[in-house]
Amino acid sequence: MKQLIARTLTSLLLVVVWIGTVQAQSTPWVIKVKIPFEFNVGEQTFPAGDYSLTQPLQHLLVLRDARGQTIASVFTGGIDSLAPVASTKLKFDSFGGRHTLTEVWQQQKTTGERIYPAKQRTTFAKRRSAEARETAEGSQP
Q1: Considering the entire predicted model, what is its pTM?
Q2: Long-range Cβ contact pairs of 134-138 (< 8 A, separation 24 or more)
């Protein structure tokens, strides 16, 4: 009976240590930033102001307003740098007077997150839907 209790306690201890390790590895980061111009994240446009960015899950970026309210979330892809970046930075692409957030980098990290252009995501979704529709229509007698 004592061996059973000892094994159970050991197993519980290992589970607690493992959960603590997983939580430590998945701790979301937060970047607070003042953006001095109107900008886009995905297909949404936001005014200049104070914002925060967080990554609660791998390849998910969440934009929050100054009050901490979630106002946008987008899927991202990982990107690499040969050397750690010197400071945290956001990269915007500008075209026709519009600024679109495209990359997020954290200080002293060699990895960042890329936000894919909204048009590419829409084109892919439309193409995928057309292919799926053709397959479904082609399989009917």
Answers
A1: 0.64
A2: none
